[in-house]
Amino acid sequence: MLTGSNLLHTKQYNLRIVHEVIRLFGPLSRADIARRTNLTGQTVSNLAKELLELGLVQEAERRQEGRGAPSTNLAINPNGAYAIGLDFNRDHLTGVLVDLAGAVRRRADVELDLPTPEEALELMVGMVERLIAEQGMPRAAVCGVGIGIPGPMYHASDGKGYLVNPKSFPGWHKIPLADWLQERLGMPVVLENNATAAAAGERWYGAGQQIGTFFYFFFGTGLGGGLVMNGRTYEGFSGNAGEVGYLPTALAGDAGDAGAAGAEDSYVGLRFNLPRLYEALGRDGIVARTPADLDALVAGGHPTLLAWMDAAVDHLVGLVLAVEYLLDPEAIFFGGRFPDRMLKELLDRVEAKLPARRITERVPPPRLLLATAGADAAALGVATLPIYQYFAPAPQVLLKQGARGPAADLGALLGAASA
Prior knowledge:
By secondary structure, the protein is of the alpha/beta class. The chain has 3 domains: 11-76, Arc Repressor Mutant, subunit A; 81-198 and 377-418, ATPase, nucleotide binding domain (Nucleotidyltransferase, domain 5); 209-370, Nucleotidyltransferase, domain 5, CATH 3.30.420.40. The chain contains 13 helices and 14 strands. A hairpin with a 4-residue loop joins strand 4 and strand 5 (104-111).
């Protein structure tokens, strides 16, 4: 139950509680909202009136509840606010514009080849401007932009937000990408590890809506991981929780320092590196440059690709068991940029090998599931971050200070958007 507070100075928190209950369970009557939040009927009526005036909710169909006049239900107003999510990696930039109900209104995608930070910034600015223009709405209607990018990430020296420092990106070192983009766009920008963002996308839009604690294996240019605990993404102390791709393989002992030059093969994530896979296929005379190309090869049972999966799955089984024993999740998702057909092949191979390596006392094991939020899960996930920052009933709202900045006043936000 999402429980509100009847204490003094909690109006903003209660507004968010009522809004979130309507988002999750609506359409709902005011009486239903009061029952779900433990707020008084009068408090709910006052908050609902303000949310209607702000344009965050709207009246839905009327419903008969016993005797008397039918009650008017409340539902999320999709046009109440918008946000943009950008999923960036060395080989692509995907952008989505979503409304307050989570529907994708616009989408853009471009294939890349490791752009410089400056080139990436220009591409992101251009994509955001394009999405807004195509939707034909004022910039003020967008409450913010979320960016998903490979880790590791570092806390900025002022403690506000993260710096980008992906190991596989030559020329990128502690880049303040969010600050750059925020200065160029003039709107809030939130940065997140793309694997954590994909887990958030699955939690908000996919099968993860019904699962409180799960791990998400994110197959992108390499391999990452995101963790959702008790319904919330868990970032860890430094923002890099779930970075399974940098765990050492059995080769690490032979290579010495896993971070040293020449020891790159000791990182398990490179066993799932797409550029390397494309190169291997190229040596067999197969031209493959995109996940769609891989899908066709999987469907045709190409021996080089099947052999690659057979070799990679041994490492993946070990990672699945490590997650299973350390975190005890309800489910483990396979998702990301790999085509669904390829993810299913990997999942089937893992399930076939797990019983022989799992202790018999481990009952029940977590479910292994294909992610359902699709290849845009990371973009969808980071698109939720600005919306979540403004609208979700996070406890820090009561303290008037959020984890990524001051708690937002919904009235002030919507007032600025309508100005």
